[in-house]
Amino acid sequence: MGKLVSIGKILNFHGIKGEVRVGFSKGKESLLKKLNQVFIFKDNIKYAYDIESVRFHKNFAIIKFKQINSINDVMPIKGLLLHVNEETLKASLETDEFLISDLSGLAVYDTNGNKIGVISGVGENKATNLLEIEKTNGLKFMVPFVKEWVPVVDVENDKIVVNMIDGIESLFTVQGNGDEI
């Protein structure tokens, strides 16, 4: 079995028949509907849970596991994360979707082919994800992870191209050492 990736969190029970309310990333409804099994770690032990049904209510997934039949069965797993194999998740990605773990450490180039630095992290705000870029001099700045700013993502060749618009670094500086950029 490959690496496991978290896809949601059990927030609470839903009703009295053992359904759980799960928080998940928006847009992943089709992935959740396709799953037959997830893994949950409790006390550092991995347990497999077979999915009986999935439906959606408001912004949550309501999942019924074959092994869970009452509120009492839900309580020990409340607050725990649901995991799937990384390969399962990658197979469900659409064009221009990436796993954060695949982006970290990629080399960053400007549109002229000059190396700027590496991706040191991925954050988010209400509008979009943000790529944190650590320059070769140690300074960090962030760019919105949208096509206008990041026209090329080539995970296979460990490369990202960033459109270095004038002033971007001063607008999105994460940390500095007292020197001007």
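Above is the first protein from milestone M3; the second protein from the same milestone is given next.
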Amino acid sequence: MVDQQYETYDPAVHNRATPQETFGPVVKVDKLEDGGIYLITLNRPHRLNSIGDGLSDALYDAFVEYRDDPNARCAVLTGAGRAFCAGADLINTAETRQAEQAGREGPAPIISRRKNPVPLSEKLELWKPTIAAINGWAVAGGFMYAMQCDIRIMSEEARVGIAEARWNMGGAGWMTPLTRQIGLGSALELTLWGDTQYDAQRCYELGWVQRVVPRELLLETALGYARRMLFLAPRAVRNMKQALYRGYYMEPLMASQFGSAIEQNLQGMNDSVEGPSAFSEKRRPNFTDT
């Protein structure tokens, strides 16, 4: 096996101070295809999109808006600049913890208890599909955001890692689903050894990502997945996602019964007439989620 985990990147420097520039909101939301697709961009490129300056709250709000928008069918999450997300802003974290230890007020926590978008689907009841377009480093909290999405697409040069053990940072709460995504052994290697880093090919071999593409094709590939969703039956998609996520932890017979119960909501829908009619008439269906 090729030794590919150990790279020159050091998470200790990902928050190194750089000249502050104006990049707009810390999370940008672009609505494409007449609002059918949400392109959500983590937008702190001067700090490799590390989690700070209210980024977590803004991401929570973006996903809630996507969830509640009746026109939205799919969301793509990516990062501005050369990183997807480098995890917690350690400068902010250090200032907060030093202030707490000294009994004085410091910066706000990087992730608030009130607005934490993890676990994304279960906590926010977000059963619409989400795609992570991983354009660069996805480290620690950045890995956390990527693993919440339903499918992941990586650029060839992207890398991932979970560095919490190096800096005595919390993370055990969000790491628990990782064993079902990459297996126990790889999950332990990635988390217990905080200097372990996987490249895109390793992530693909583990099944954690579904596609690896050149960086210049990354966003278009992700949006291609999203555009396909515009022509699928939205309620059926939501049913299947919920059944797969929740059924994973259920005994097989209970999971089957749960999935069948969910699908009772298809009865009497206009879309349940439109689907077979479109097939019979050899045309593309026009689903309205009604």
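Note on the second protein: The two ends are 52 Å apart (CA to CA).
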